[in-house]
Amino acid sequence: CALLAPAAGAFAFRKARRRRRPGGAAQSRQRWRSDGRALQKLPVHMGLVVTEEEPSYADMASLVVWCMAVGISYVSVYDHNGIFKRNNSRLMDEILKQQQELLGIDCSKYNVEFANQDKADQVLNCQSTLKVLSPEDGKADIVKAAQNFCQLVAQQQRTYTDLDVNVLDNLLSSTDGFPDPDLVLKFGPVDSTLGFLPWHIRLTEIISLPSHLNISYEDFFSALHHYAACEQRWGK
To answer: Terminus-to-terminus CA distance in the chain, angstroms?
Structure first.
């Protein structure tokens, strides 16, 4: 089952971000690639859940770019007020900006697919895929999937005995093409994921951090290291 692990016992949280030194970007890129390869296991799908009232676009963009840099294939961003989703273009602009600043000449290797974008020409063939989610993609999506299944039964295209985990997964639109999250980083003082994909986090490792504001790469990587070292028993 999902585990809500407090940050205090696993690693220290740093309030201030370190000032970048000249020439440090290239060293950081090399370090991020090396860090990703060094981990015993790396999440395929990472969820970034903000429970704080005032989310930071810049800090969230940094987290997304770090996920891309270490080799995480799927990233979900969620806040319980739906602020990131309503202001999707602002977040995407910040991510593109930090791609260039943090990844520099390697930016083309880490193109991100904006899975929520309406314009097809803005969706890039890429290594990492991002979805921006809100509460309507949680319980509401399950209700919609149930309604769609009932409609199929009424139209005699399905029978009630057809309903199983795989069928429901296929009916859910919020994570279409995404595997279930392996790891969720939950930011803020609330000991809850506040509606983040309740169906998909049955076996997800959840690590709690005090805040996403001014988060450092060291805190991010410490969480990945904690995940890599944990033993997942899959309910056994």
So the answer is: 10
What is the pLDDT at residue 90? 94
In 3-state terms, what secondary structure has residue 214? coil
Which two structure tokens, joined as six digits, stand for 20?
């970048």
Digit-coded pLDDT (tens) for 149-161: 787 778 878 887 7
- Tokens 């990703």: give the residue: 36
3-state secondary structure of 111: coil
CATH of 25-135+176-229, one of 3.40.50.720, 3.10.100.10, 3.40.50.1000, 3.40.1180.10: 3.40.1180.10
**What are the start and end residues of each CATH 3.40.1180.10 domain in the chain?**
25-135+176-229
CA distance 229 to 212: 22
pTM for the model stands at 0.74
* Buried b or exposed e, range 170-191, using 16+ CB within 10 angstroms: ebbebbeebebbbbbbbbbeee
Q: How far is CA 105 from CA 51, 102, 231, in A?
A: 34, 9, 37
